[in-house]
Design a protein that fits this description.
Helix content: 25-40%
Order of helices and strands: HHHHEHEHEEEEEEEHEEEEEEE
Shape: elongated
Number of helices: 7
Structural class: alpha+beta
Radius of gyration: 29 Å
Number of strands: 16
Largest sheet: 5 strands, mixed
């Protein structure tokens, strides 16, 4: 049976996705698992198509620290090499009897003291050229630390949706039929209110001999909730109005499709609206499974325990 024949004509098409309809121009998934667009931009020099501020703000913490340390060590090596090239005799406090490696090492630490404006005074510049270089380095150091401080503040103050999605989407029993289910949960000490979800199905289909991208809105059991404190399982009932109504396990295994998920919620800590998105390809859909409950009451019945390690836990079931 053709793919278009499997999609119910009552399904609601979504034309506001922002994705193009020409499927032959697309490669891979529409959205990466981390929510970024699966797009590589070319045609302009790299300095024009990349915002270094956004890059530094969005990169993982360990990469950010590594970049800062690499810059700090690298720029001091450059200045140390220049001081050494000018002549160690122009740095009062470094003995000419020291080995070359000792002299370069002391020039490096003098550079570090000048760059950070510490200036212990053990070594001092002698002569106009060395003094001018140390003055320029002190200015560069002040500007560099100002930029680094701004980046640290930007990373800590950036509104972020601290939500995690389940690794898989499930086709699970729902009422008297089936439902598409995706689970998410907050994982830090944040308070989310007024959470809103949207789910869209995207597929490559052949229509009149042309391969095109078709998108369908997937209605949810609950599109909005007042508070997102525990886990939230997004449920799309697979009814006769659903584009997935006629789909079988073989269809999910053999067809190319992607489920796009958008979450928007208000974070009390940032006092701002935050958003996050992800996607699931049909390969990441498990047919005939249900999520294992991930919270329960404490032993003394005084609070609810949320087990974050059970976010991805599910068990296989037989669908009717």
């Amino acid at each position: 049976m053709a793919l278009l024949d499997r999609i119910n004509l009552k399904s609601k098409a979504d034309i506001n996705t922002g994705f193009g309809t020409n499927a032959s121009s697309y490669g891979g998934r529409f959205i990466n698992k981390n929510g970024t667009a699966n797009i590589e931009k070319n045609g302009m020099p790299i300095l024009h198509r990349i915002s270094w501020y956004h890059t530094m703000i969005d990169m993982p913490g360990w990469k950010f620290i590594l970049v800062i340390l690499s810059f700090y060590i690298g720029i001091n090596l450059v200045f140390a090499a220049i001081y050494y090239g000018i002549g160690i005799e122009h740095l009062d406090g470094i003995s000419l009897s020291d080995s070359k490696w000792e002299q370069f090492g002391k020039a490096y630490f003098f550079s570090a003291q000048t760059f950070t404006t510490v200036g212990y005074g053990h070594i001092s510049p002698v002569g106009f050229l060395t003094s001018a270089l140390s003055a320029a380095e002190a200015l560069i150091g002040l500007l560099s630390f100002a930029i680094a401080t701004g980046l640290f503040f930007g990373r800590f103050s950036k509104p972020t949706a601290f939500l995690k999605f389940s690794h898989h989407a499930l086709i699970a029993p729902y009422r008297e039929g089936k439902g598409l289910m995706i689970r998410l949960t907050p994982f830090k000490n944040t308070n989310f209110t007024d959470a809103e979800a949207k789910m869209t199905l995207g597929m490559n289909v052949e229509e009149k001999g042309t391969l095109i991208n078709k998108f369908y809105t997937l209605d949810l059991e609950l599109q909005k909730i007042n508070a997102l404190s525990l886990s939230w399982t997004l449920v799309h009932p697979i009814t006769e109005e659903s584009p997935l109504f006629n789909f079988t396990a073989e269809d999910f295994a053999n067809m190319h499709g992607e489920i796009l998920v958008y979450i928007k919620t208000f974070d009390d800590m940032f006092s701002n609206t935050v958003a996050i998105r992800t996607s699931y390809t049909f390969e990441e859909v498990v047919y005939g499974a249900k999520f294992v409950p991930m919270y329960s009451r404490s032993n003394d019945n005084s609070k609810t325990i949320l087990y974050l390690d059970k976010l991805n836990s599910f068990e296989k079931v037989v669908l009717k």
